[in-house]
Amino acid sequence: MQNEAALIWNPILRQYLVNAPHRMNRREGTTTCPFCADMTNGRVDSQTQVWLHPNDFPPVQPPTGEAYVVIYSRDHDRTFTQLSVDEVNAVTHLWRDLYNDLATRYAAVMIFENSGASIGQTQYHPHGQAYGVSVIPPTLQYEMETVLQDQAAGRGCPFCRVRAELSDDVNEVAANPTWRRTMNCAISPKSCCA
Q1: Per CATH, which fold does 3-136 belong to?
Q2: pTM here?
């Protein structure tokens, strides 16, 4: 992949888009799990439970960005929701450390999980992904602008305002004691973290 073509400017949308046609040749249909191979080939220690795997088909490469796969468990057949509290804690510590590292080099860091074939998942070993990119995606830019505008106007935290507006059960999709997910908003904390 050539870095010069990794990000292309779309003049109609007025934003950069990732150009990664090589990702169309990933491992669909293969029976070999590259993350299990990390263990059998000795890439990770036998005691390691969570680890980073360099993305074998990265959409971006330095200096444009970096892409990693975050492996949640040695067990190929488990899902994130089946992890114990201690295992989830280990994953979140790895997320934190990776975020802190990538944030020293890139304008935006995105850590996420895409689950299911319809969204493009090709490996079923429990994992998520992390990208550090040299440009701030428009959605993150708009959110940042909203926070700054609301603070300047004395309206406080916009996330807290939206959370209060959508606090009824009608809009709630899922929740636990700390986080909630509503139909019109991303996952948000139940208390302000600003």
Answers
A1: HIT family, subunit A (3.30.428)
A2: 0.75
